[in-house]
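Whiteboard transcription, Tuesday session. T.W. wrote the structure tokens on the left side:
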């Protein structure tokens, strides 16, 4: 059955109809198509550019079952494309072949040099072998590799010359390099080395932002993951690490805003569980000072373009997230960029828009219609009642109010 959708396409703001034939969008009308969306806004399927499906805790094995559950959570929340900047195992081929799952752009296994990650969680390599391993992971995955460029605040970051050699070698095969950075030295080395994406960027020196803009280093701040732990940090007894963390966190929102205003591509990544919460990252980006439209683009069309995929065009992928209009005027729902100066968006307006997106009942994923009925993502542990290998009972584990963070950069090592 050919499906038909009609609405106002973002970011172009043009009313269009598409017919979904197979996994492609078509603009040529098809008689007797099944109209599944009529009116409202049409935006390219949501994107989470920083998520680690497949395992939730660092001492549990990666499993196909967990991977499927996590990707299903993303899909049911309208997240139809994900980038996995590091995982405990390479993403298996069956994910690409399953039309009911989001598309995945993988960076292979985390690349960790001694002392800079959880031993055994990613691919442990010596500094001497890092270049070779990075090229290998990029070739085996979607062209990306992910390097842990720093770890503890009181230990040295990965030397810049090694990271530069990684970038040079991976770029030579047409690949891209994502760098985990949460210390000033880590971000300095990563930006100077010319990585393609700065993940987290806590303690980023604002003086590096212009270079990021000029060399197209994207910024994936994962604010929702940091924000989830901020109150707990503040409640801790004062210590050098606590103060270091909080100082880094306080600077993150201004840095994100400055980066956006300087022309850096800022993108939405959650780095947390449950999967399927990218709209909360959009809210954080708005809080940082992006316009609502720029923040939503960071989780939709801008992210797709950055990953080399088109938006809603003839011949493009049939993945889209319709959003129904509210009773308010459409002009107020999505003010133009000029009308919504950075940071001037009121939070009630933003919350209403995002709430409308969450209430969306239909997402089209690879030509399949996915009907959502008040989907509430939950951690796999909470959903299945299983006990994690760490021995923590599921009911005592992460909750939707305080999600786990996959990338161990914020809480588990740096606290
Ligand atoms: Zn991460």
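and on the right, the sequence the group agreed on:
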């Amino acid at each position: 059955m050919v499906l038909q959708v009609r609405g106002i396409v973002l970011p172009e703001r043009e009313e269009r109809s598409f017919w979904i034939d197979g996994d492609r969008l078509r603009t040529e009308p098809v008689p007797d198509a099944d109209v599944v969306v009529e009116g409202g806004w049409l935006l390219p399927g949501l994107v989470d550019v920083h998520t680690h499906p497949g395992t939730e805790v660092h001492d549990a094995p990666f499993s196909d079952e967990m991977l499927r559950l996590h990707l299903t959570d993303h899909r049911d929340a309208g997240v139809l494309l994900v980038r996995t900047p590091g995982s405990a195992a390479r993403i298996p081929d069956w994910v690409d072949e399953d039309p009911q799952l989001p598309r995945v752009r993988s960076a292979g296994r985390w690349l960790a040099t001694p002392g800079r990650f959880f031993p055994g969680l990613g691919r442990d390599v010596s500094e001497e072998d890092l270049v070779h391993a990075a090229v290998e992971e990029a070739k085996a995955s979607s062209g990306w590799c992910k390097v842990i460029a720093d770890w503890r605040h009181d230990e040295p970051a990965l030397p810049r010359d090694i990271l530069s050699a990684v970038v040079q070698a991976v770029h030579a095969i047409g690949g891209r390099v994502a760098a985990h950075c949460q210390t000033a030295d880590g971000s300095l080395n990563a930006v100077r080395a010319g990585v393609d994406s700065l993940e987290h960027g806590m303690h980023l020196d604002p003086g590096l932002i212009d270079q990021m803009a000029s060399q197209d280093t994207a910024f994936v701040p994962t604010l929702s993951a940091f924000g989830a732990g901020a109150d707990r940090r503040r409640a801790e007894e004062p210590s050098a690490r606590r103060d270091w963390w909080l100082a880094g966190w306080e600077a993150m929102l201004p840095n994100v805003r400055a980066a956006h205003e300087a022309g850096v591509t800022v993108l939405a990544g959650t780095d947390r569980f449950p999967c399927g919460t990218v709209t909360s990252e959009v809210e954080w980006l708005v809080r940082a000072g992006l316009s609502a439209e720029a923040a939503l683009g960071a989780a939709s069309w801008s992210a797709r373009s950055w990953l080399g995929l088109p938006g809603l065009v003839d011949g493009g992928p049939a993945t889209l997230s319709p959003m129904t209009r509210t009773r308010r005027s459409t002009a107020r729902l999505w003010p133009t960029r000029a009308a919504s100066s950075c940071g001037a968006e009121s939070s009630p307006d933003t919350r209403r828009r995002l709430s409308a997106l969450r209430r969306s009942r239909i997402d089209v994923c690879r030509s399949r219609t996915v009907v959502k009925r008040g989907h509430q993502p939950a951690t796999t542990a909470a959903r299945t009642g299983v006990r994690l290998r760490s021995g923590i009972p599921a009911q005592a584990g992460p909750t939707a109010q305080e999600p786990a963070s996959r990338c161990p950069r914020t809480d588990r090592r740096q606290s």
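Someone added at the bottom: The domain at 46-306 is CATH 3.20.20.140 (TIM Barrel).
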